[in-house]
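Sample pair:
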Amino acid sequence: MGLIVLSVATFIAETMPKFRADLKKPWYTTNTGMFFFGSETFFIAFFTLELLGRFLSCPNKKGFAKNPLNIIDLISILPYYVELMVPKSDDGEGSSSSMTSSLVVLRVLRLFRVLRIFKLGRHSNNMIAFGIALRGSMMELMSLGLFLAIDIVVFASVLYYCEMKDDGSIAIDDPNNFSSIPASCWWAVATITTVGYGDMYPRTWLGKIFGSFCVFSGILVIAFQVPIIVAKFTWTYMQVNKMSDEDTMESVEEEDDSEQEDSKPDQ
């Protein structure tokens, strides 16, 4: 568990501005590059051996391959091996312009390294219960998504027409204006979820009225669905803890029985 946290911490640290210049050069030319490359190599070696060990010891290989957590483990280590196979020039980039698309793909693959944080879910009852609750609440989540989508489209359309000028024109160059219904959808998402970034807001009195309705509508839609999901999570969390406690009690009872048998005098 500690290695997972450290690997994610090094991934985050690589993006800091004071390391960025050194990391653009080949890793063996700077101390910073050698440190991060060595750390990543150690983490990847450990995670690879762990994944192979679990795969070889698992009796159901097909079920192991279909497990979402195992797929995430595989995806989180693959970018390292892909990066090793991509040739680099002295400036740390591709050796020719034809490598540009490959490097773009490589940068996207590097993002998958952050997925290894989900490995922490194996060691947390809360994460296990959360995953089970989400899986059991798919219908409620789909209903919530449907209601939110309806709200977003309706109020984005209403605000688009409310914010039009009298002659029907819109200042498209102004990013704060409702220049289109898709642009208005961003305002609707921020308003329905009560985030309210403030980058877009209605200026007409009619737009402000419907904007208020949008806020109240979002509160009601979320309030109707979220308690159901929370209740399922609470029930699942209690069941997972109960199973964990039962396993612990069984192991303790087995140890007590074995100690009692060892303490009996020989007949």
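Residues 205-263 form the longest helix (59 residues).
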